[in-house]
Amino acid sequence: MFPDHWSFFFIHIALASFIVCMLSGVFLMFFYDPSVETVTYQGPYEPLRGVETSRAFTSTMELSFEVRGGLLMRQLHSWSASLMIAALILQILRVFFTAEFRKPREIAWIALFGCLMTAMMAGLTGHFLPDDMLSGSSLAVLDGVLKAIPVIGTTLSSLFFQGSFPSGAIATVYPMHVLILPALIALFGLVIAFQTFRHKPTQFPLPGRSENNVVGKSLAPATVKRFGLMLMVSGILFLIAATVTINPIWTYGPADPGNASAGGGALWFVAFLDGAQRLVPPGWEIVLSGYTLTLAILVPVAVCGLFFVAAILYPFIESWISADKRDHHLLVRPRNAPARTGIGIAAIVFYAVLWIAAGSDVIALHFSLSNEDVILALQVSLFLGPIVGFSIARRICLGLQRKDKEIALHGFETGRIVRLPSGEYQEIHAPVDEFQRWELVNYESPSPLHPRPDESGRIRIRERVRAFFSRRFFEDRVVPPSPDEVRELRGHSSAEPQATESSENPRTDGSPVRDDTARRSGGADLTL
Q: What is the model's pLDDT at position 527?
């Protein structure tokens, strides 16, 4: 059985994009020449005719202008790679905010990140292969990052470029791009699929669903539906590739180590690395024992690396803080985990600030601002933005939980006000059926842990740290109403006197009573 929900299809969009990317890549392999031999371009593109270029650049130009369908395949390859990475990012966000990463799916969470990072590396290595001006600029940045690593930096740069900058990089990245990285992506995908079938699919909590069953469609109709989605994604990719230009290398020209394209920037999925380097104060370096530590490069790379490491280890961190070792097969509404949702929003804000910083010069140019002022604003946002995002997201989640509890206990507000025989005015609430009430209040609300002494009666530092973070996670919470509370309130509501005058009857002062009927709008069950 396979549960049905629109958010479950992100991974299938990524799979369809991967298949299209692989098939188009096989086509491109027949025409691309990974050689740095210098030749004179004599193709149909007049502005570059007679210019000395590498065989890699010339073969890419021939593929774009002389091979039938070549430009379509190039653009299809690029667009499908971008869509695959975007779908993987959305899948990671969906898994995080619905707590699908919890035991026993930690391995699938790690494999999902491995798939994303490998796809990013595949996209980056593919960006180097045309040997155009943008790829040459990217290689220059990569060379600087490698050489900034203490002790072994120059050796790593020499190995990567095979002693010849920048042309030697193509011989290194080509086998990685066409063999190693696609194989790793497929391997991580198989791990995710194996974990899904081994531990059964997850599902959102609804009446009739539990940790021990799966409610959804059987294998055959679910497979047909997903196959149809993948065909639709493939068709949309072909349509985009046929109408929207991406990576027009003929406008950039061949790579030149001494030049760079004006307005050129990093690929969108690695732009956060470029943005992190721009936010570091200039001239930030330390000389130790004759070695120069270029912190302006090392710190951004280290911060971004720690960000991904923390994200990968988050399931184990939360499990330790909550002391929850149970298996979970039901997902969680983001509003019912305020601390986790706040952390996710804080991470998104942190990533977004770095991503925006990659275009700081373009922002300053278009809005007629000083680049230094834009950088300063982004530096402040990098530290304050995640804190503000966490606080706002957590308060919103708590407010939504309180609203759900109120609806479960008292019903939906209708906006109708009636006058009782005693002269008292009351608002009429629409009753909530059992299924709606179950959806609103059927969730866990863990209480903070208290430090436990060991056999000798001492409270270890580890337990104190766990209790500290547990309070930060679970101190602000909304406890769902118990069945006894619900029954008591239902009994009280049934004993209330009925209204004797409609809301249209006038008040004693002659003014009419407002009668606005509010309607509850339906929505998907993946809401805050």
A: 35
Q: Hey, what are 305's tokens?
A: 């690396």
How high is the pLDDT of residue 445?
Answer: 82
Angstrom CA distances, 63 to 31, 52, 209, stand at 7, 18, 54
The contacts of residue 45 (CB under 8 Å, 6+ apart) are 61, 65, 250
* pLDDT, tens only, 76-87: 999 999 999 999
Residue 285 lies in a domain: no
Structure tokens at 205: 């909590």
Please tell me the distance from the alpha carbon of residue 449 to that of residue 466, in angstroms, as a whole number.
Answer: 8
Is 422 within the bounds of a domain? yes
Distance from C-alpha of 312 to C-alpha of 111, rounded to nearest angstrom: 9
Annotate 60-104 with DSSP letters as a single string. Answer: HHHHHHTSTTHHHHHHHHHHHHHHHHHHHHHHHHHHHHTTTTSTT
* Closest among 80, 89, 160, 84 to 128, alpha carbons compared: 160
- Domain of residue 197 covers 10-253
Distance, CA of 488 to CA of 493 (rounded, Å): 9
**Position 305 in a domain:** no
Q: Residue 500 pLDDT > 60, yes or no?
A: no
How many Cα atoms sit within 13 Å of 37 on the Cβ side?
Answer: 6
- Give residue 140's pLDDT band: very low, low, confident or very high (50, 70, 90): confident
pLDDT tens digit string along 243-298? Answer: 999 999 999 889 887 777 766 778 899 999 999 999 998 878 888 777 778 888 88
Residue 140 belongs to domain with CATH number:
1.20.810.10
Mean pLDDT computed over every residue of the chain: 86
Q: How far is residue 364 from each of residues 300, 326, 349, 351, measured CA to CA in Å?
A: 22, 51, 21, 20
Q: Which of 214, 229, 253 is the last residue of a domain?
A: 253
Beta bridge partners of 286: 293
Report the predicted TM-score, pTM, of the whole model to 2 decimal places: 0.88
Which of 187, 218, 253 represents a domain boundary (last residue)? 253
Q: Which two tokens stand for residue 72?
A: 């379509």
**What number of residues does the chain have?**
528
Q: What is the mean pLDDT of residues 127-155?
A: 86
Amino acid at 356: I
Radius of gyration of the chain (CA): 29
Task: Please give the angle made by the CA atoms of 424, 430 and 435, to the nearest 5 degrees.
Answer: 145
- Is 324 inside a domain boundary? no
Calculate the CA 271 to chain-centre distance.
14
* pLDDT tens sequence across 173-215: 999 999 999 999 999 999 999 998 888 888 888 878 878 888 8
Contact 389, 349 (CB under 8 A): yes
Number of domains comprising the chain: 2
